Amino acid sequence: MNIVEQLCDEILLIHHGQKVAYNTVANIKEQFANYKCVLVGINEVVNFEEDSRVERMEREGQTVTIHFQQDVHPLRFVRDLPDSLEWDEMHIDRKSLHDIFVSIAKEEG
User: Fold this and answer.
1) Shortest CA distance to 69 belongs to which of 36, 101, 95?
2) Taking the model in full, what pTM does it have?
3) What is the pLDDT of residues 42-99, one digit of tens each?
């Protein structure tokens, strides 16, 4: 599915012979996948789940993944991060098409 994301403008997702989604990659991601922000290298413990824009947070070592609520744009959240918070890397993206398809298949299943 990663190659599909890179090569295709529009895609059709089929599950058990039934069309479950047809649109541009961007529109499918907007419809089925909220944004997430991965911060790598955070040393201090910050509870981002107290923020109403956060759906859930995962911490593994010095990596924190923040999953946002629907319709939350992560740049607004990033602007509100404390100036004292330090990190080495930041990635903002949405779930992959593969993960979206698996989620849809489980719901249909």
Assistant:
1) 36
2) 0.76
3) 877 788 999 999 999 999 999 999 999 988 989 999 999 888 888 999 999 988 888 8
Distances from the Cα of 44 to the Cα of 10, 21, 57, angstroms: 42, 41, 15
pLDDT digits (tens, 9 = 90+) for 84-104: 888 999 999 988 888 888 888
Q: What are phi and psi of 2, to 5 degrees?
A: -60, -40
Name every residue whose Cβ is closer than 8 Å to that of residue 4 and which is 6 or more positions away in sequence.
Answer: 11, 25, 97
Q: How far apart (Å, rounded) are the C-alpha atoms in residues 63 and 50?
A: 18
**Cβ(25)–Cβ(11) below 8 Å:** yes
